[in-house]
Specification:
single chain, 302 residues, mainly alpha, 2 domains, 14 helices, binds zinc ion
Length: 302
């Protein structure tokens, strides 16, 4: 009971400090309830159109929003995005349901990469337990857990700051518009794919830092491992030991390791957001690594 009271008190404090309903109550709980309800409705009267909407939503919000936008573009700056695509990406990143881009980048750079698997500083290391790394940490985050100074350059970007301050309005406004168009569209294009992607990224945070869950090529200071299924199905994020070795490479797979089968599907999304020369740059890096196969060999399993 005291734990529940502490949890509620922390969330009330977050609300007072940020003037926004905290993530757990604004996104995590309601979107999961809506996703389950949408799945139930789909089960009641299935239409293959729902599957097409799901794939489109998974590509746009999970692939472009979370994996390309939040992770590679904003956090690691490993891709150039066309100027006219930037505000669109700001909106897509909000709709990926993983918190504001400034917050995400600050957490990812200042706490995860800088202190990976150090339980004192890494917010979601499995050293604090598998469930904690999977999703439990989201319930424990307070308004002052993440110092936004690790995303300081974005505090000068008006669009990014606006999307940060109005996060819940943008997200729920988008949901309301989609619900008005067609509730099943809102469920299958937006709510279900974003919750699916949130869980696949939670698999990355937990399984891909779990000793023995995969293999390592590089002796990074953390426990990161490459997990092929997560690499192929979660937009390359599962080539995670490669990513901790070279966080500034856009491609987490072949470009780092030279292994052709460590393909990073995010490469397929580059032409949608980047100028042609950027697409050419990233794809030729991949091609060179593939041709010259650097033959990274697994090191010890931690
Ligand atoms: Zn990691
Ligand atoms: Zn990263």
């Amino acid at each position: 009971m005291t734990k529940l009271k502490q949890f509620l008190d922390d969330n009330i404090a977050t609300y007072r400090a940020t003037k926004q309903v905290p993530y757990v109550f604004a996104v995590l709980i309601p979107f999961h309830i809506l996703a389950v309800y949408g799945l139930y409705l789909g089960y009641q009267s299935w239409d293959w159109m729902y599957a097409a909407w799901f794939v489109a939503g998974w590509v746009i919000f999970g692939g472009l929003g979370a994996c390309v936008g939040l992770h590679r573009w904003v956090s690691h700056k490993s891709i150039e995005v066309r100027p006219f695509m930037r505000p669109i990406m700001h909106w897509i990143m909000v709709c990926s349901c993983q918190g504001s881009a400034i917050w995400w980048a600050a957490l990812h750079r200042g706490y995860h990469h800088a202190h990976a698997d150090n339980p004192e500083r890494d917010i979601h290391t499995p050293k604090d337990g598998f469930w904690h790394a999977y999703m439990g940490w989201m319930l424990k985050v307070k308004h002052d857990t993440i110092n936004l100074k690790y995303g300081i350059e974005y505090l000068k970007d008006k669009s990014m700051v606006w999307h940060h301050k109005h996060y819940n309005y943008v997200l729920w406004g988008t949901l309301a518009v989609m619900m008005a168009i067609d509730p099943m569209f809102a469920f299958w294009f937006f709510v279900i794919p974003t919750m699916f992607s949130l869980h696949s990224d939670s698999v990355v945070n937990s399984v891909c830092h779990f000793p023995g869950a995969g293999y390592r090529y590089y002796n990074t200071k953390d426990q990161s491992v490459n997990v092929p299924l997560v690499g192929w199905l979660a937009w390359g994020q599962g080539w995670h030991n490669n990513h901790h070795k070279s966080p500034r490479h856009f491609d987490f797979g072949t470009t780092v390791s030279g292994k052709w089968w460590e393909f990073d599907p995010c490469l397929l999304l580059v032409p949608f957001v980047s100028p042609w020369r950027e697409t050419k740059r990233l794809w030729s890096q991949w091609y060179r690594a593939w041709r010259h196969n650097e033959n990274a060999t697994p090191v010890e399993i931690v």
